[in-house]
Amino acid sequence: MHYRRRKFYSKERELLLHQEFHHRHWEFNRYHKSLRFFRPISIIVNLIILYILFRWVGLKAISVLFAVFIIVKEVLQFVFLWRVEKRVFKPILKLKNGVEEIAKGNYDVFIETDRMHDLGFMALLVDSFNEMAQKLQAGEKLKSEYEENRKTLIANISHDLKTPITSVQGYIEAILDGVVNSPEKVTKYLKTIYQNIIYMDKLIDDLFIFSKLDLQKLEFKFEAIPIRAFMEDLMEEFKFELEERKINFYYRNKMEGDCQLNIDRKRVHQIFKNIIGNAVKFGSNPGFGINVQMNRRAEAIIIDIEDNGPGIPSDKLPYIFNRFYRIDNERTKDLMSTGLGLAIAKELVQAHGGSIEVSSAEGEGSCFSLKFPVITTMNEVGHETNSNY
After folding, report:
1. What is the pTM of this model?
2. Which runs of consecutive H residues, i.e. helices, occur in the chain?
3. Residue 250: what are its φ and ψ, rounded to 5°?
4. Which residue, among 227, 211, 294, 293, has the nearest Cα to 265 in the 3D structure?
5. Which tens digits make up the pLDDT trace of 326-341?
6. Structural domains in the chain plus CATH codes
7. Helix, strand, or coil here: 338?
C-alpha cells in the first residue's frame, strides 16, 4: 500500500512537471515567434518613417532625428543584451560549472534560479539539472550504504562461518588422529559436527533469502486468500510442532466475519516460523507459552504473537531487526541462531505491504504485532474462535 501511494505521488509529480515543461516551452516559443514577427514589421515601419521625414522635414532635422534614433537604438540594444545575458548566458554558465563539478564526482551541487527574471525555458532546465544532481547524490549515498553493508555482511559471514568450520575441523582431526577412542566420545563428536553442519546450512539458506530480498529479486506468489481458514490451518501446524517440545500454545481469532488478504502462503509461513522460532529459542523458563491473537482494525488485520519468555532488554530492543544482531553478546551458537530470522521476517512483512512492531518488558515477555492490509471483506458472518493448544 505504501509502495502504491509512493507510485501515485510520483506519477502526479511527473505529470505536474510535464505540464510545467509544456507551459514554459509554449511561453518560449511565443516569445520567439513574436520576435520573428515584429522584426520585418519594424523594418517596414522604419522605412515609412524615413520616407515621411525626407518628404516633409528638412535634411538638418533628419540628421538630428537620425542621431536620436541611433542613441535610442544603442540604449535598447544594451538593455536587450543585458537581459539576454542575465536570463540566458548566466544560467548557462552556472549549468556549465555545475556539470564540471559533477564530472569531478561532486554531486552536492545546487544551482539557484531566479524565476522572476530567468527565461521560463532556462528556469525549467536549471530545475531539471538540480533534480538530476539530487538523484545522483541520493544514488551515490545509497551506493555507499550498500558498500558499507556489503563489508559488514562479509565480515559477519566470515565470523559466523569460521567458528563452526573450526569446530568441525578440530573434531574431525581428533577422530582421525585417534585421540578419541571410546565409541561414546566418537558419537558425541559426530553429533557436534552434525549440529554445526546444520547451523551452516541454515545460515546459507537465510543468507540466500536475505540477499534476494535485499536485491528485490525474491519471487512471490501472491493470491487472494480468506485469512480465517488460512490462519486456522497454519496455527494447527505449529500446534503439532510445539506439542512435541512441551510448549503451551494458544490461538484466538477475535475477528468478526472473514476477509481476504493478498499474500504468499510460503512466505507468510516463514514469517511466523521465524518469529515463533525466535521466541522458542529464548523461552526456556518453566511454564513458557506462546499466545497468538488475530483481530481486525479498519482495513487491516492485526496478528499479535505474544510469549511469556525472558523478554528483551530495552537498550537492545531497537536493534533486534538488524541483520546478524543477537541479544547474547558472545554470539554463541548454542541456540542455532543465525541472527537473520527477525530481519528476514520484517522484510517479508513489508513485501506484503504490511508492518511489524515489537514491545517487550524484561522478565515478562515480548509481543510481535503484524499488520497486513485487507483487500476484500467477505459477507460471511463469523464468530470468535478460541483454539487452546
Report:
1. 0.59
2. 2-56, 59-84, 90-103, 120-176, 183-214, 227-243, 265-282, 341-351
3. -130, 135
4. 227
5. 766 444 444 456 777 8
6. 2-141 (no CATH), 157-214 (1.10.287.130), 223-388 (3.30.565.10)
7. coil
